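Structure (tokenized):
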């Protein structure tokens, strides 16, 4: 992964020159409350130190709002997504919107997702049990008029949970 930034994918333009297809090497998706000031910060700075251009959203996000167009564009312009699943990840509609967008980019643009299961069992995500079941019970109640959105989040979470990744416990 250390050579990612020098191996940017190129796409032909209308002229004979090439332009970079990706603005970012990596898009980080994480639940700030769980991991921002520990694991995610360490990972972000390690990637940065290796020359891997990484998008990490540091803004305070408003509850109940959809992801911003800028965030959506950053996902589309990233070659890889590192999704850091944590206990409270699924309680965040922002995280779930990001994840749904990431999975869409996997299907439409060939984005590569690298999941990290941080103090959560990957099977909890796949089966949507434990805190993930609690989160979806709340979402189904809150979004009863838009249950398709909740189903889209469930599907994205299940797909991501089936990917091979890193399972980190108490690190």
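Design, position by position:
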């Amino acid at each position: 992964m250390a050579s990612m930034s020098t191996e940017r994918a190129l796409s032909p333009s209308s002229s004979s020159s090439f332009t970079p297809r990706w603005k970012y090497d990596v898009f980080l998706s994480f639940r700030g409350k769980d991991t921002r000031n520990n694991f995610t910060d360490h990972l972000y700075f390690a990637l940065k130190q290796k020359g891997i251009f990484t998008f990490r959203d540091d803004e305070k996000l408003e509850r109940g709002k959809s992801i911003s167009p800028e965030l959506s564009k950053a996902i589309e312009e990233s070659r890889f997504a590192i999704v850091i699943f944590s206990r409270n990840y699924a309680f965040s509609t922002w995280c779930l919107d990001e994840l749904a967008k990431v999975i869409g980019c996997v299907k439409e643009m060939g984005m590569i997702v690298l999941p990290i299961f941080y103090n959560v069992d990957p099977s909890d995500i796949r089966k949507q049990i434990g805190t993930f079941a609690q989160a979806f019970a709340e979402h189904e109640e809150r979004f009863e008029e838009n249950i398709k959105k909740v189903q889209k989040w469930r599907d994205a979470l299940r797909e991501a949970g089936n990917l091979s990744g890193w399972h980190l416990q108490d690190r």
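Reviewer-requested clarification: The chain has a mean pLDDT of 84. The helical segments are 32-49, 69-76, 93-109, 122-127, 131-142, 147-161.
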